[in-house]
Every structure is written in C-alpha cells, then in structure tokens.
Amino acid sequence: TICPSCRQPITTEIVYRVGRLTFLLSTAMCCLGCNMGCCLIPFFMKRFKDVDHYCPRCRFHIYRYNRL
User: Is the pTM of this model over 0.90?
Assistant: First the structure.
C-alpha cells in the first residue's frame, strides 16, 4: 500500500492489541467456570486481538482492524 503520510510504497507493520473480543471471551470463559487461569488464554492468542497497521518508515497509524 502507499502510506498517506510519507507517500512511500510500503508493506504495513502490524501490532496486536487487546480489544473488546479479548475481554468478552475472557469474561465468558470465567462465567463458564474456567477461572483457574484458563480465562486468560484469549489475552495470549493473536487471533482474538485487534490489529493496528503502521507505516514502517514514518510510524504513521494507517488502520485498526477490530475483531468485534
């Protein structure tokens, strides 16, 4: 893609962030009886986190993909 800030062709750098889906799954697991540490599993799995896309050259935040 092309960065809107520095106007260079780039491949975005991604950073995973804890989002609403992570908290929702953790709460649901805790309510279902997985409260001995298993409810923390969504906090360690990338598939349950939001994704931020950044330009690797100027560090401009391009987009956030929200899982929920």
Answer: no
